[in-house]
Amino acid sequence: MDEPTMPGRPAARARTRVVVVDDSALIRRVLTEIINSQPDMEVVAQAPDPLVAREQIRALNPDVITLDVEMPKMDGLAFLEKLMRLKPTPVVMVSTLTERGSETTLRALELGAVDFVSKPKIDIVHGMQEYATEITDKIRAAAIARVRKLAAPALADGTVGALAARPASGWSTEKLIMVGASTGGTEAIREFLEPLPPDMPGILITQHMPEAFTRSFARRLDGLCRITVKEAEAGERILPGHAYIAPGHSHLLLRRSGANYLAELSQSEPVNRHRPSVDVLFRSAAAHVGRNAIGVILTGMGRDGAAGMREMHDAGAWTIAQDEESCVVFGMPKEAINSGGVDEVLPLKAISRAVIAQVTARGGRQNRV
Asked: Are residues 189 and 316 in the same domain?
């Protein structure tokens, strides 16, 4: 039952309750100041290590936890794994901008962390203040995210596996697949790519991610998938059996050169506050690939990709959005659906199968009403 309110006074919205876990007293202080400066969130506890945090989480049941990766007494990853098995709670990781830090952070996302922010290596106070908007935006996204209990990896879907094992004879080399994602997207992209056979058409992917992380992300996927996954390079030819990740410093676009598609990188202004932007990739596909493109928009906060997916749809592409139930955050797919640019709305586990079906269809789009 809702609490009664005074006549003429709107009901107060509950603030997001955050526990900050970091072995650095300075980082704890700066994060607390940033969070408490927002009207819709508050720090309810700070912890210097996971053992203290464990007791605070039990007592306070916070909405979101910010968690450092490297801490004494218990590693942040070990703590995260225990938390997601026993008491799934939205977690935003605080990570260093190093290669080792990026690998660890990607592992944290696999374990169920919603997102991460990059801890500056120098001038921490001013650096963290510059990240204030990013930090608070990611806490807001985490507060509405769907988190699930960590379980042992499930066996691959037999139907998708059987479909993916079929010979690709007759698949159009003209087709290209475009994928966009943000919050929760690293794991969604992995789950989409893993079942695909090694001779799929070229795949271009924009995931909102800082520059220091995209190469590690591509390398991790390349070790898990049958297709080749790499960070995109300017001017390279888009090849079948390859997926290209937009580097964190540039928009990823396409251009046509005779019978080939080439990758282009642009450091033009951010779009929808993002560089790389999903809209930039999707609009490029609409302009240069048209009905031979397949567009996929996965979990993410905000509306980046919605306008571009509508342009792809209007240019004849087949477009798919991840459904609400399987999204960590349903923002980007919801906006794309509302824009009228989506042909199918599917759970994450069904998207690979649907894309393979579209690729094998010689006539391009299927079942368009």
From this structure: yes
